[in-house]
Design brief:
Elements (H helix, E strand, L loop, with lengths): L1 H10 L2 H19 L5 H8 L8 H12 L2 H4 L1 H6 L9 H12 L3 H26 L3 H7 L2 H18 L4 H15 L2 E2 L6 E2 L13 H20 L11 H14 L1 H15 L6 H14 L14 H24 L5 H12 L6 H6 L1 H30 L6 H20 L2 H20 L3 H25 L7 H23 L10 H21 L5 H27 L12 H21 L3 H14 L3 H22 L11
Antiparallel strand pairs: 1-2
Helix pairs in contact: 1-19, 2-4, 2-19, 3-4, 3-17, 4-19, 7-8, 7-16, 8-13, 8-14, 8-16, 8-19, 10-11, 10-15, 10-22, 10-23, 11-22, 11-25, 12-20, 12-21, 12-22, 12-26, 14-15, 14-16, 15-16, 16-19, 20-21, 20-26, 20-27, 21-26, 24-25, 26-27, 27-28
């Protein structure tokens, strides 16, 4: 108790609390801007903590890192663009609710679930510290591989209307993740002689392309986020969302437990955790609830509880063993070294007040962030009523800029456009984008765990108890969903145009075969996993092509896919990218907003406010707060 009171007093010391507050505010800002994320925030903050004492330093760092997954809900719900990769699952039901005029309800549920999940994760962290070591050491690479396959299968089968297409989308995502230098032999796989691809395609660019570009194109075509009449009772909706979180307290705690437990396993990222929580909630849907993906509030509560609870879980192996539980925690290890702190079992004894302060920081940061966000929710919810001609160009600037700041290379924009096209195609043809995104994120983990399991145990890893259980459950989920799909002859929702869908399947079949053939000459370690994945992709695509041909006469032609509107939006993306490269990172977006504003007929005051506002935010964030070396504009 004395240690706890000492830590509490240290945390609430005026200087330390100011740093915590500053970290929370910065984390909220970073989470709102698509493509930035907590990793970026930690990278820029760690050097700034050199002159601070450890408690002030980690109050700032953990205050920032703990809340980016709270504010990333704002763009996910309001415009369908995940602020960070940890908000991808929230997009499905949160944005669907916003389209119905219930943005405040979705945000209220998300913020309250985030707070409870974050506090619950911190509590579990404090309880698990003494007993976690034997649990972590008990799991081997085969177990981690089986858990990862189970999570991927669960989401693929629960995402979208066609389970086979969900599995194929997940395999395609994992196949794309294999591009780059092989981690075992250093061989090039599908790099096309581009140095840019040696490290693979950046995750943030894939997510912004797959989710951000298609949703903004849809909003522009629809004229605003709302599909029906607006509801101005935002405060009532806000309270309603918070009340639904409390009524679903069992789901909140269960999802928080999933987030904290899996966050403690090194290599299991936030994207995996939130989708597992989402899948768990979807499996327990009650008959009187809306379908998940169409505006079910439990589809917002579950991932938001899990992704905030995982911060406490991922800090656990970092403190106890010096093993980072996530990418941000690996940056935090650098901060430990900077302040002369050695993580490990001895730290729990010798630096107990600091450890307790870190746990309290995570809990308090979530409470503060929720208070800020709830206070702003009635104002933020009004964004859903803003006309698309105003909202979409401004949001597009931050999406494209978020991609470009990754490497500051023209290929950032090219791959954003490429994955944007893929996202539009998948949305138009009814394919599961979440399954693709999760397959992409899990691809490196799957390959790493598979190769290490094979090196250590050969094929005997398949006989390990946890592996058998996880794979058996995954197989049963696949079989059950396939039988259910076969028995219900009529599919739900809109069936895409059969010619375009068949052409897409043939394209995927060709990619699977070409990928397999191109790997033949590589060393065994470099080709064993992607070759098997390419073969599975080709087999699934062939099965779906055969099914499409057999059902050709049974299918019904639907209304035409609005290709023209999507092409016009992609032209906007190209124009913005060209302006960014030609005029620079400040003049380019400003010129784009000016041009679009004149085209859509903005009033002079509206045009000046939009241009100066966007330019000021970019300048403050990327020139003042984090000065960077930007490439020279092509016209200068």
């Amino acid at each position: 108790m004395d240690i706890f009171l000492t830590a509490l007093a240290e945390l609430f010391a005026p200087g330390h609390f100011v740093y915590l507050l500053g970290g929370v505010v910065l984390g909220l800002v970073i989470g709102v801007i698509p493509g930035i994320g907590g990793l970026f925030g930690l990278t820029i903050l760690v050097p700034l903590t050199y002159t601070l004492d450890p408690i002030a330093a980690f109050s700032l760092l953990l205050g920032m890192a703990s809340v980016t997954t709270t504010s990333d809900t704002v763009p996910a719900v309001l415009i369908g663009v995940p602020g960070t990769v940890g908000a991808a699952a929230t997009v499905l039901d949160g944005h669907a609710l916003a389209k119905k005029g219930e943005a405040a309800r979705a945000l209220g549920a998300a913020y309250s679930a985030s707070m409870i999940g974050g506090v619950f994760g911190a509590i579990l962290l404090s309880l698990a510290l003494p007993v976690m070591r034997p649990v972590v050491l008990l799991l081997n690479y085969g177990d981690l591989l089986a858990i990862t396959i189970f999570g991927l299968t669960l989401v693929a089968m629960l995402s979208g209307q066609d389970q086979l297409k969900g599995l194929l989308a997940a395999c395609l995502g994992a196949l794309v993740a294999c591009a780059g230098l092989d981690p075992h032999e250093g061989a090039e796989r599908w790099t096309f002689d581009l140095l840019y691809l040696w490290d693979g395609v950046p995750v943030a660019i894939v997510f912004l392309g797959i989710f951000g570009i298609p949703e903004l194109a849809t909003i522009l075509r629809r004229d605003r986020v709302l599909q029906g009449e607006s509801d101005d009772h935002d405060r009532r909706k806000l309270v309603q969302g918070m009340g639904e979180t409390l009524r679903n307290w069992r789901l909140v705690l269960r999802s928080g437990g999933i987030g904290a437990m899996l966050g403690a396993l090194p290599g299991v990222g936030v994207t995996v955790i939130e989708w597992l929580a989402y899948g768990d909630a979807a499996r327990s849907r009650k008959p009187d609830e809306p379908e998940f993906g169409t505006g079910n509030i439990r589809g917002v509560i579950a991932p938001e509880s899990a992704n905030n609870a995982k911060e406490g879980g991922s800090l656990l192996p970092t403190l106890a063993f010096g093993i980072p539980g996530s990418a941000p925690m690996s940056i935090l290890l650098g901060a430990f070294a900077l302040h002369g702190i050695v993580p490990g079992p001895r730290m729990l004894d010798e630096q107990a007040p600091l450890v307790i302060t870190m746990i309290l920081t995570i809990a308090l940061a979530n409470v503060l962030a929720t208070g800020f966000c709830l206070g702003l929710t009635p104002l933020l919810a009004k964004i859903a009523r803003v006309r698309a001609t105003t909202l979409v160009p401004l949001a597009l600037v931050f999406v494209v800029f978020g991609a470009f700041q990754y490497n500051k290379d023209v290929f950032d924009l090219i791959f954003l456009l490429a994955f944007g096209v893929l996202g539009i195609m998948m949305r138009g043809l009814g394919w599961s984008r979440p399954a693709f995104a999760l397959g992409f994120v899990l691809g490196p983990n799957l390959e790493s765990f598979f190769f290490l399991s094979y090196q250590i145990s050969g094929w005997d890893w398949l006989t390990q108890p946890l592996v058998v259980v996880c794979l058996a459950v995954a197989a049963s989920i696949v079989l059950r969903q396939l039988l259910k799909s076969y028995r219900s002859r009529s599919e739900r929702g809109v069936v895409p145009p059969k010619q375009a869908d068949l052409a897409f399947l043939v394209l995927l079949l060709g990619l699977g075969v070409a990928g397999f053939v191109s790997l033949v000459s590589l060393p065994f370690a470099a080709k064993v996993f992607p070759s098997g994945l390419a073969a599975i992709t080709a087999a699934l695509a062939a099965a779906l092509v055969l099914r499409a041909v057999l059902r050709w006469r049974e299918s019904t032609e639907q209304s035409a896919w609005p290709v023209g509107a999507d092409l016009r939006f992609l032209l906007l993306v190209i124009v913005l990218g060209a302006a960014l490269l030609s005029l620079g990172h400040l003049l380019g977006p400003a010129a784009f907003i000016l041009g679009v504003g004149l085209f859509f007929g903005y009033s002079p005051r509206h045009l000046a406010f939009a241009t100066l506002g966007v330019t000021s935010v970019l300048w403050l964030l990327f020139d003042v707060a984090t000065p960077q070396n930007w490439p020279a504009p092509l016209l200068f």
